[in-house]
Amino acid sequence: MAEKRCPALLRLSGRLCVIVGGGRGAAVKARSLSCAGARLRIIAESVSDEIKELDAEIIQRRCEPGDTEGAFIVFALTGNAETDEMIKNEARRGGALVGGEDILLPACAEGENITAFVSTGYPKLSAELMRDILKYDSVCGLLKRFRERVNRSPAEQDARDKLLAAAVTDEALETAVRSIEEYKEYLGRLEQELSDNIKENG
């Protein structure tokens, strides 16, 4: 039987979260924690450029006893099973949650209009999916304003619902990713149809 889990949202703002490791997996976790406002400490002999771009305390050396003290969550991502186990044991003794075991942290995709979390169990796939999601960031901004205008319309609810559905068909979204200008024109045509419908029905 698969292990049962309970999804939950954590308040991480200002809380210390420690990541031991500086590779791709560490970068994905660090970005998710950063999205949540966590106070990041990353410990590794070498860290990726992606990690260096984050607002984090970076300690470039091997993890030492006491490095996880006061942490709320600790991720052991050194790639060495024995080292990772030692880090996890110290974290638990200090009362911290162990990332990947006590808590599963999805990858975070954050744009101007989108904040999404992706969990696949495979960091590289999560990163690819995040990039795909963020292709729709500008589309979300357009749709938010479009929805507000449509909902203010005096048209019947059924007509408004059909228009809102038409804005997010597979074909419409393919157009949006291909050309945001074409998509703007498409939304404009939908709004004109609604306006014409109102006039026809008096």
Automatic annotation (TrEMBL):
Gene Ontology biological process terms from the UniProt entry: siroheme biosynthetic process
Protein known as: precorrin-2 dehydrogenase
EC number of the protein: 1.3.1.76
Enzyme class: oxidoreductase
TM stretches of this protein: none
Keyword flag NAD: yes
Keywords for this protein: Coiled coil, NAD, Oxidoreductase, Porphyrin biosynthesis
UniProt pathway annotation: Porphyrin-containing compound metabolism; siroheme biosynthesis; sirohydrochlorin from precorrin-2: step 1/1
Matching Pfam families: NAD_binding_7
Coiled-coil parts of chain: 173-200
GO MF assignments: ferrochelatase activity; precorrin-2 dehydrogenase activity
